[in-house]
Amino acid sequence: EVQLVESGGGLVQPGRSLKLSCLASGFTFSNYGMNWIRQAPGKGLEWVASISSSSSYIYYADTVKGRFTISRDNAKNTLYLQMTSLRSEDTALYYCARADYGGYRDWGQGVMVTVSS
Amino acid sequence: DIQMTQSPSSMSVSLGDTVTITCRASQDVGIYVNWFQQKPGKSPRRMIYRATNLADGVPSRFSGSRSGSDYSLTISSLESEDVADYHCLQYDEYPNTFGAGTKLELK
């Protein structure tokens, strides 16, 4: 069974940093691209960042470029999102999702990030 | 960036209805469209991949179609478990972009 388990969220002050993790199991992690998607309270889904299976290709939304860094450790089956210079508008539920030829196949349960003083 | 204009934003439905939700892409995205179902407090679930293909375990009353730049999700004979939010996504190019979502509510 595929599992994606996010962690690392919480309440953080504006301007501070936070690092999210997504632990994958049930599939060969190193074979798949991975994504971060977020959803602000009561809002729609917003793509945040993507990373290819070997980390050769990385893409960011303009809203987070220069502040967020996506990375992965294939030996640990873990995806990361390092978030710096956090803003109130970054407050959201952050999901990791596995990519396949058909798009976004599997999603984690999400982890909440709240940016507030 | 490619815009996915999703309509309607909400829909009042009855059990047994046939429901169609549409996303219009601002540029060609080919077949690279997903449809997701999201229930309150839950993660999105992929329903359709490559615009017209039913994802594993998805009931056959769901279908996806494409007409030019318009992509549609149709639910035939709506059941109570289908009442949820639905989102489209284009993954043809970066930034990947979602539609604004459609909320189905029972009359």
Structure description:
The complex is a heterodimer of chains A (117) and B (107). Chain A has 117 residues and is mostly beta strands. Chain A contains no helices and 11 strands. In chain A, the strands form 2 sheets. In chain A, strands 2, 4, 5, 6, 9, 10 and 11 form a 7-stranded mixed sheet that branches. In chain A, β7 and β8 form a beta hairpin. Chain A starts with a strand and ends with a strand. The mean pLDDT of chain A is 98. Chain B is mainly beta. Chain B has no helices and 11 strands. Chain B has strands spanning 4-7, 10-13, 19-25, 33-38, 45-49, 53-54, 62-67, 70-75, 85-90, 97-98, 102-106. In chain B, strands 2, 4, 5, 6, 9, 10 and 11 form a 7-stranded mixed sheet that branches. In chain B, a hairpin with a 6-residue loop joins β4 (33-38) and β5 (45-49). The mean pLDDT of chain B is 98.
Features:
heterodimer; A: mainly beta; seven-stranded mixed beta sheet; four-stranded antiparallel beta sheet; B: about 110 residues; mainly beta; 11 strands; about 50% strand
